[in-house]
Amino acid sequence: MPGKTPDKEPVENGGYRGGKDIDMKDNDLKPKGKKSVKDGDDEMTVVVPPSKAAQKQSSAPPPNDADGDVAMDDVDKADEGDVKVDPVVQAISDIKSNFALLERAVVLFDARFSLRALRSISSLRKRLTPEILAQVISETYSTSSSSSHVAKQLLAAIGQSEMPLGRSWAPEMEIDSEPKAPAKNGAKKESSKENKDVIPEIDVFLGILTQVLLYDNKQFRQGFEHSRYLSDRIQSLNRRSLDSLSAKVYFYYSLFAEQLKPLPPSPQSPIVSIRPTLLAALRTAVLRKDIDTQASVIVLLLRNYLLTSHIAQADLLVSHTQFPENAANNQVARFLYYLGRIRAIQLRYTEAHEHLTAATRKAPSSACALGFSQTATKLLLVVELLMGDIPDRATFRQPTMELSLKPYFLLVQAVRVGNLEDFETAIADHADTFRRDGTYTLILRLRQNVIKTGIRMMSLSYSRISLRDICIRLHLGSEESAEYIVAKAIRDGVIEATLDRERGFMKSKEVGDVYATREPGEAFHDRIRACLALHDESVKAMRFPMNQHRLELKNAQEAREREREMAKEIQDGDLDEDDLGGEFEGM
């Protein structure tokens, strides 16, 4: 064209006239150059260098300021790594977070917040050290606080008396490296103002943490003295918000007393000296309707009496007190276990079986409560054998019970067959285990049951058997003793047979169908009764919002008043159907 130079005229191949492809290097940076490239043009493969140029441009700044950029990247990575909180700082923060729960429990008068604080102790005790607890006490209290004497007592109990009160974070903690340090510093300023008045619930909670620390470190003497101080302080305070906390204090108080020498069942054991304190706490809890402390102290007293073999006093305590119905499930399970042990010692095996069965059903299913389940099951097996029943084999096949119940499995095998020799061998081999479990004296009573079981097996196997054969099979001393044992078994209803003393043999009666008797119906009735009892307890354990019925009544009254006003306005002619919305077409 005449108005344009020939170099600027486009060609179909995307080049310029004159073949000056070198100019395309400058235009390759433009996006149009990539769009105009065709697959058939070999020369246009030079579009790749722009990516290299772009890479050079992107990599050009690092050489100019390479040191600075690299250092900033390292700082960013280091900052990301420093976000990890120090475990000491985290433990202190977790302990202090429970103070807000205790304050809410006091303000709202709701014990559930206190229980949440107590449940956190299981996770805190693994990280608890004297230094951490001393740091928390030092930051919580100040020298001008009215509870400063409590703080000094707590510090003395854990051996940190030199720690000053009102102390802030030490520089070696390096808390300033965290991004939220200003907020924490501000929070410390606010907390320093609040340190002047510390509620007693926080005092007792820190005292419980001190008890836990001393018990884990096996400082039983210091823990016993500290627990005595805490119990006296709780007795002097009359606050309903301390109910759940005081129950925990008495629990550890009893544990410390059990570990001090002389150990029970010695009458000089320290557990005897704490009985007046526990009885006084029980009287106070009953008067104040403190359910948590009442349930806990009753269980502790029963355990105290059983450790020293004071069965009569334990029975008097049960008969003169009433265990609270709304107690925690764990306390109910413990109470039923101790009650079942008392009834078993008193030869009241039917009641003992009922209490122990309920205790095993109420036992927590968590791994931390496995020891209680095993102990209750061992006593239940012995009681079943004393009642003349044979435990189910499935009980011994449970993975969590198989190893601990092995001595009792051998015992059950000997009783089931009626082999007196195997029974005595099992007792001799595992006597230490039975003594440690507290079932040795009850197992010694099983000798007569073994003999009765053997006689029952022989009565079912033989229609007539001589007393001499009975004496040989049961390893008895003489035929006269075999005669007395058989006569007693017939009188007790263990076997259905007759005894011919002149000829010296026992003749069995024909056994009818067991389903024609009332035994299956009674067993079915027992199961139904257990299910109904569980249903009733579940209904009692349900919680409902307080004063909800009053809110419903208020809403109902307001609705009635609105209906009366509308009816009055309709009668006066102030409202018609259009004002009320007319007819509903969808109705």
TrEMBL record:
It comes from the Eukaryota. Residues 572-587 have a biased composition (Acidic residues). One of its GO terms (biological process) is regulation of protein catabolic process. One of its GO terms (molecular function) is enzyme regulator activity. The keyword Transmembrane helix does not apply. Residues 1-73, 175-194, 557-587 are annotated as: Disordered. Residues 1-11, 18-39, 177-194, 557-571 have a biased composition (Basic and acidic residues). Keywords: Proteasome. The keyword Membrane does not apply. GO terms for cellular component: proteasome regulatory particle, lid subcomplex. SMART domains: PAM (SM00753), PINT (SM00088). It holds the Pfam family PCI. Residues 333-513 form the PCI domain. SUPFAM superfamilies: Winged helix' DNA-binding domain. Belongs to the proteasome subunit S3 family. This is Proteasome regulatory subunit C-terminal-domain-containing protein. It comes from Diplogelasinospora grovesii.
